[in-house]
Design goal:
about 240 residues, 4 helices, globular, disordered C terminus, binds zinc ion
């Protein structure tokens, strides 16, 4: 089987689609992953050892792990960032655009090329090849393409990390995006051949390493109407 990223014939590793560090808080006492679905007619998912499949060769797995390590430090602490909170909006500066963007792209791409049923709603079409080439080249591309909105999920007083949801396609402000929930965040990743443009691009990660995260209650998440309204509100938020 060829590696999905470099296309070379190689022994493939059992790769995580959603990086392992994001599962750390999700395993129960029997080390099974609690996977919930917001689609009411579907039962909760339980999978052994996370969602993995033979996808990448060793070299490509290591390439992605560098960006995953950086993202892990950003999300769990360990890199120096400037953080400023205004109400429910958290402005973050001093991010490494290249590494954090490539991390986001790698999750989107892996979900798109995965054959696991859990990721069946992520259909990237021609964007799968465009993303593969960016990842292979280590090129984060333009901040205007494949941008990602991040929502920090609060649950009562704390941060809500114990939830992963089946990714789905959503339409936000006229753009197609794929919604992922893992690691305590809702990630809305835009997939379009057109630039994101203002005001949406004020919240996605900029080339200068700025990003805005909107905090919201995990219990409100199913309401995509309010989700969309909040996005518009976020787009009008004062810029960084
Ligand atoms: Zn490879």
């Amino acid at each position: 089987m060829p590696c999905a990223l470099c296309l070379q014939e190689a022994e493939l590793r059992r790769s995580h689609v959603i990086p392992e560090f994001l599962y750390e808080t999700l395993y129960d006492e029997k080390h099974r992953l609690q996977v919930l679905s917001i689609i009411p007619e579907q039962a909760n998912w339980r999978e052994q050892k996370g969602l993995r499949e033979r996808l990448l060769c060793d070299a490509c797995e290591q390439k992605l792990s560098v960006w995953e390590r950086y993202a892990s430090l950003v999300l769990k602490g360990g890199v120096s960032l400037t953080v400023r909170q205004e109400g429910n909006i958290v402005h973050i500066s001093d991010l490494d655009y290249r590494q954090f963007k490539l991390f986001q792209l790698s999750v989107l791409w892996r979900a798109g090329v995965s054959s696991l049923q859990f990721f069946e709603n992520v259909q990237l079409g021609k964007h799968a090849e465009a993303l593969r080439q960016l990842l292979l080249a280590g090129d984060p591309g333009s901040p205007e393409r494949y941008g990602c909105f991040m929502f920090g999920l609060k649950h009562e007083a704390g941060v809500f990390t114990g939830l992963i949801m089946q990714p789905g396609k959503v339409r936000l402000s006229g753009h197609i995006a794929y919604r992922f929930v893992f690691g305590g965040f809702l990630w809305a990743m835009f997939v379009s051949s057109h630039d994101l443009g203002a005001p949406l691009n004020q919240c996605t990660l900029s080339a200068a390493g700025n990003m805005a995260i909107l905090l919201r209650n995990a219990t409100d998440m199913e309401n995509l109407v309010s989700f969309s309204a909040e996005l518009d509100q976020m787009g009008r938020a004062p810029s960084r």
